[in-house]
Write a structure and sequence with these properties.
The protein is α/β, with parallel strands linked by helices. The protein contains 14 helices and eleven strands. The chain has helices at residues 48-63, 95-98, 114-120, 137-149, 185-188, 197-210, 218-228, 235-239, 246-250, 309-327, 347-353, 366-369, 387-391, 397-407; strands spanning 27-33, 72-75, 129-132, 155-162, 254-256, 259-260, 270-277, 290-298, 336-339, 420-427, 430-437. Strands 3-2-4-7-1-8-11-10-9 form a nine-stranded mixed sheet, sandwiched between helices. A hairpin with a 2-residue loop joins strand 10 and strand 11 (430-437). Helix 10 (309-327) packs across helix 11 (347-353). The longest helix has 19 residues, at 309-327. The chain is globular. The N and C termini lie far apart (42 Å). The mean pLDDT is 94.
Length: 441
């Protein structure tokens, strides 16, 4: 039987819903992160599946619980935004000597699969609830939060692995391991346009409207690398521990002007697992519980093949309003923001939609904010995780760090008390986000 996805009604995607019914009923405790790699070396022991199993076991150990306490799994099956194998490609030689196989031959290789995990992790013998959170781990987080709050699972794993195979990365639909372009991408991506090009065009429109420029991004990008290099689990710490400077950023090679090489995150292999449970069950977990106060979702409402500045601003404004409404807090309560940054040039849309450190301003202020102290030591920590740009492309470093910040054990811990934080991914008009809190007070 196919693994289901969350019903549409689970996603809080409109205003006027009031306080989230699950507020105070769901917490995160244990976190497990795999090692990283730039690309897969095609050995079973370093595969997406192997990294995911390792991350799960580390999360269970981090929570200080037994594997037989796990009764649910929510997983994001998609595992890359670059090159992937044909779904029917056979497993590489020696695969079946290491792992048991399911009917889907790419399970554990280029796709996450709950049944494959359970077959290869016999210690997870009490899992009854299974659900996929497609497209992004942010969807898996919000789905798991709903499942726990609704009493469908008591102690739930939230899981995503990423693979990165050899080959060109995401340069138009046709170059992404396909001979033809299909789906919505055929209208905007068939001419070899880099993935960051749409963001670059909207960023240029933003700069023209508000009198800003690309150079003003430098403090943010440099700070992200600094924060990322504090994280022992990040790709750059493990493989390329070089700090970048403002001059490096300003002289970076253009990819789709005004987006340069440092405005693009680096595809990697990695996996993350997090334990969600109830406050009652968390009392015997080793780590401090982090409350999920609300979650919200936006999806594209576009008038053309690509979004416009007005559409991104309207959607991210809506996200901010929905999050605060359901959580019962306001922007002034946030201790930090950890929104997605896969292309750095759209991060400020998330910041401004949340009104983070807005000083009463509404739009066009974020690049000015970047010129102030946005460090983990400062009054307005922006992306303390280092994000994808500071750690490698996963779309989950910011979620992971938000949990660790509030637990007081982030490797890039902010110096002010971490009471409330926000994280979400991915695009300004296609986003799932959560408010995290140290308590429900």
């Amino acid at each position: 039987m196919p693994i289901p996805i969350a019903p549409h009604s689970w996603h809080r995607n409109r205003e006027g819903l009031g306080i989230w019914e699950g507020r105070g009923k769901v917490v995160a405790t244990g976190v497990g992160t795999s090692p990283t790699a730039r690309r897969w070396d095609e050995k079973p022991e370093t595969s997406l599946g192997a990294l995911t199993i390792l991350a799960i076991r580390r999360a269970i150990e981090d929570a200080g619980i037994s594997p037989d306490e796990i009764d649910g799994i929510v997983l994001t099956p998609e595992s890359t935004t670059g090159v992937s194998n044909d779904p029917n490609s056979p497993a590489p030689e020696g695969w079946s000597d290491v792992f048991k196989m399911v009917d889907y031959p790419q399970a554990g290789i280029t796709r996450g699969d709950i049944d494959w995990l359970l077959l290869n992790m016999p210690e997870l013998k009490n899992v009854q609830f299974k659900m996929n959170g497609p497209v992004c781990m942010s969807v898996a987080f919000t789905t798991a939060a709903e499942a726990v709050s609704r009493g469908l699972t008591g102690t739930c794993l939230v899981v995503r692995g990423w693979h990165n195979l050899a080959g060109r990365y995401y340069v138009g639909q046709g170059a992404a391991a396909r001979d033809t372009a299909s789906g919505p991408g055929k209208y905007g991506g068939i001419w070899g346009m880099p993935a960051c090009a749409t963001t670059a065009m909207i960023f240029e429109e933003y700069c023209n409207k508000y009198g800003k420029n690309h150079d003003m991004m430098a403090p943010f990008v440099v700070e992200e690398r600094r924060n990322g290099l504090m994280n022992p689990d990040g790709f750059f710490t493990q493989h390329r521990p070089e700090m970048i400077t403002v001059d490096d950023y300003l002289s970076g090679r253009w990819i789709a002007k005004p987006a340069n090489i440092y405005d693009n995150d680096l595809p990697i292999q990695a996996a993350l697992a997090v334990i969600f449970t109830t406050p009652e069950l968390a009392k015997h977990h080793k780590q401090k519980p982090v409350y999920i106060l609300n979650h919200a979702q936006t999806r594209p409402e576009l008038q053309g093949a690509i979004p416009t500045l007005a559409e991104w601003e309207r959607s991210s404004d809506k996200m901010g309003r929905m999050l605060y409404e359901g959580a019962g807090i306001g922007p002034e309560d946030l201790s930090f923001e950890n929104m997605y940054d896969g292309f750095t040039l759209f991060h400020q849309f998330h910041v401004e939609g949340l009104r983070f450190a807005s000083r009463g301003e509404k739009r066009g202020y974020a690049l000015d904010l970047y010129q102030t102290d946005i460090s983990i030591e400062g009054p307005n920590p922006v992306s303390p995780s280092g994000g994808n740009n500071g750690n490698g492309r996963t779309r989950w470093w910011h979620h992971r760090d938000s949990i660790l910040q509030i637990q007081g054990r982030s490797p890039s811990q902010i110096t002010r008390p971490a009471e409330y934080g926000v994280s979400g991914a991915h695009m300004p008009n296609f986003c799932d986000a959560l408010i995290w809190g140290a308590s429900v007070e």
